[in-house]
Structures are given as C-alpha cells and as structure tokens.
Amino acid sequence: MSVPLQRDPHRTREAIAQWLTDRFPDEGTPTVGALSTPVETGFSGETLLCDVKWNHRGGRSLVRSLAVRVAPARHNLLPESSWHRQVRLQELLAATDVPVAGIHGSETSGELLGAPFVVMERIDGRVPGDIPSYHRSGWLAELRPAGRAQVWNGGLQLMARLHRLDPDALDLSFLDDPAHGRAYGPVGIRRQFGECLANVEFYGVQDDPVVLRAADWLRDHCPEEPDPPRLLWGDARIGNIIYSGHTPVALLDWEMATLGAPENDLAWYLFTDRYLSEGLGLHRLPGLPGRRETVATYATFLGRPLRDLTFYEVFAAFRFTLLTSRITRLMAGTGIQWPNGRTPSLRSAALLARVLEEAGDVACSP
User: What's the rounded Cα separation, in Å, for the pair 74 and 45?
Assistant: First the structure.
C-alpha cells in the first residue's frame, strides 16, 4: 500500500525545486510538476513522483521524470531507521549488474521536507500490486500463464544476481552495524531473529500466542549458516520489482537489506506471495511456478542446493506477522475499514499458524 501524501503539495514542490536549484545550479530554473504517489506498493516512507522541467538560456529545455523518496516521518515500520544505509547501498548497487534506480543526490537534513530524502530517476514500468493483490486483479492477472511465469522467474534471476555479489568487494561492512546489531550476534539469521525478539513490544505482538509459539519453534530449529554471508535484499518479492513487459528492470526498497544466507530472501519471496493469495482467501494465479519448481529453479541459479528452507519459511511467516501487526496499528487511525474485521495482522497470524503446523518438528530441509 502506498503512504498517502503527508505534506502540502505546493510547499513540497517549492522545496524540491529549491533543492534541485542548489544541487544543479548550471541546469537552469527547474519547474516541478504535479506530485503523485505510486498506487501499487510502498508503506514505510513516502515516494513522490514528478516531472521536472529545466528552462535553459536560449530556449532549450530539459524534462526529467524523478522519484523523491522521503524517509519515514510518522509511519515508522521498523524500530530503528536504516535510511542512510539503504541510500548508500543503492548507490553502490548502481555500479553493479543489479538494476536499481540511479540516484541524482540525497539530502541528509530534514530542513526542506521534514525528513531526509533521496532524488532518483523514475524508471518507466509497472509493479505487481499489493492492494488489491495481484492475484485478484491488475496487469499480472491479465497476462497469459506463460507471461506470469516469466515475471516470477525473472525476479528470481535478479535476486540470484544480487546473491552472487561479493559483499567484501562492495565494502558492505556498514550493514554490519556495531551500534545495535552486534548485540544479537554475528551477521546472519541469529542476529535477525534476535532483533525480532528484542522488539516484540514495538511490533505489538508480545502477547500473541501464535507468535510466541513460532518463536519457540525457531529457537529450537535455528540452523548454522556455513557459507560466508551474502547481501540480502530483505523485502524480496515481485511487488518490489519494476517490470517492462515481462522483464524486470529494477529492484526497489532496500530498507530491510542485511547480510546472511540467500535462503532467507527466497523464503520471503515465497511467503509474501502465499500471503497475497492464500492468506487473503484468493486462488493463486495459474502459471506462477509453485514452491517445488521455484526451489529447483533457484538452486540452479544459485549454483548449490538450498539448505534449511523450512526454517527460513517459518521465520518469514514470523517476521511478516510482526510487520503486519505494526502496519495494522499504524493504519488504525486512518479510517481504513478492513473487510469483516480481518486486519492484515489477523490474516498473517492465521497463515503463520498454518506454516507452523506444516513444519511440525521435522528437520529443516527444502
């Protein structure tokens, strides 16, 4: 879901124009067009879309389509801000073969827009929607089954490309934040799980029996991660990919990026799709590869068998329930009416219980 426009449009356009003038004084005078927000996705933080026209001396003009992403000011989905880390990561990824939106510049203060922001190129394309779910309606639902498979597998290919990057060569040590993360152990699943446990009150799930049962299961089954940690997208799903036709052209949203095992991203990719279909009482779109086919395909892309995927799927369901609980609380004051009172947190908790039942007490394996 997109964050509603939280500020005065006229003043916001003036502030963006001022920033562009200061940042690019040789470009001429910028005129910022109407602001809009993407309708398909994006909750934590505002994304403002606009066209900007520069009038140069001699009558020449230049028009650029920009996306201005503003750090969360009120809708804080995560307990600690990762804003500066995600901007830095996107700048580094722009020099790799992982496609991301190019960054024109960023502002670290909140003087102009009330929060830090980054100005990026706006990439033409379309994104599978969260609300309504792409399993219910939208351009993905209108494709033929073969086209849907291309969309799904194209996302897997880009994710594997990300996982093949060398974190040391990119100098991603800033993702290993000593300020708070190391209190929960070395990078990887134990730290991520530890951070979740330390913030159950922030998410509002400290008394949720399904969440507590899942936490016990995860403690009992937490695997070792024998390989060096890789760069993880964090919010890995087709709803965070811009597509041109059936082809992915950019990965979005690095707020949850971290270091760890690729299985973590794949489990999130699978679970978020399951939530947007089964979790919402919808039939999954024909043509989208199922779990078994997806696992086999991704193992081929990754170049090794997947390990302990059942564990990572339970962890994905657990963490997703924490996040949807937080979203439900944040949206409580906006007047949204959930059908039959079935809030995202109730739906995700129900699906978490189902995932736990399926996992049972068996050894974690694909």
Answer: 8
Q: Which of 173, 195, 160 lies closest to 304 in space, CA to CA?
A: 160
Is the predicted pLDDT of residue 237 greater than 80, yes or no?
yes
Q: 200 and 227 in one domain?
A: yes
Q: Are 153 and 92 members of one domain?
A: no
Q: CB neighbours of 230 closer than 8 A, spacing ≥ 6?
A: 163, 164, 165, 167, 259, 260, 261, 262
Domain containing residue 69: 9-121
What would the two tokens of residue 141 be?
A: 């639902």
Q: DSSP string of 87-151?
A: HHHHHHHTTSSS--PPEEEEE-SSTTTSS-EEEEEPPPSB---TTTTTTTSSHHHHS-HHHHHHH
List, in order, residues 6 or more apart from 59 with CB less than 8 Å away. Answer: none
What is the Cα–Cα distance from 129 to 124, expressed in whole angstroms? Answer: 16
Is 174 within 8 Å of 88 (Cβ atoms)?
A: yes
Tallying the residues shown for the chain, one arrives at 366
H or E stretch including 160?
helix 145-163
SS3 286: coil
Which amino acid would we find at residue 175? L
Q: What is the pLDDT of residue 3?
A: 47
Q: What is the distance between the alpha carbons of residues 154 and 200, in angstroms, rounded to a whole number?
A: 35
What is residue 365's predicted lDDT score, i.e. its pLDDT?
47
Residue 8 token pair: 């005065």
Residue 79 above 70 pLDDT? yes
The chain-wide mean pLDDT, for the chain, equals 90
Farthest-apart Cα atoms in the chain, separation: 74
Measure CA 190 to chain center. Answer: 21
The enclosing domain of 291 has a CATH number of 3.90.1200.10
Residues 148 and 56 in one domain: no
Give the whole-angstrom CA distance, residue 320 versus residue 214: 12
Is the pTM higher than 0.85? The answer reads yes
